[in-house]
């Protein structure tokens, strides 16, 4: 039977409505881009901080990475877990956990770093968490569009 036929007037109206909806959607997305990067970084930090103690520890990072389907190495060539090494690499205060200040300064270094000396696995996880606004473990269409408008 096929699809029902649509006359020119109906087609033009549908196209106009879709175009208006798209323009409105773009305007709405641009308006919502106002959520500050620091707020997004803070949300990512709070999501990583599994026990709400104000620090991201290796076990917190491991839980998130496993949730994303990434299996960190249990023992590396240095005798530590991969998550312990990631934390150690980023930990400015050298206390074995990332405070909010450690986390924020590390993120800034990553953004400015063109040589990619910072841990890419951690940076990718944090970027994902920053745009998973609903915190449901996925970046849906709206969240993806916001990411594209921010870049």
From TrEMBL:
It comes from the Eukaryota. Keywords: Calcium. One of its GO terms (molecular function) is calcium ion binding. Pfam families: EF-hand_7 (PF13499). SUPFAM superfamilies: EF-hand. Residues 36-71 form the EF-hand domain. Gene3D superfamilies: EF-hand. This is EF-hand domain-containing protein. It comes from Palpitomonas bilix.
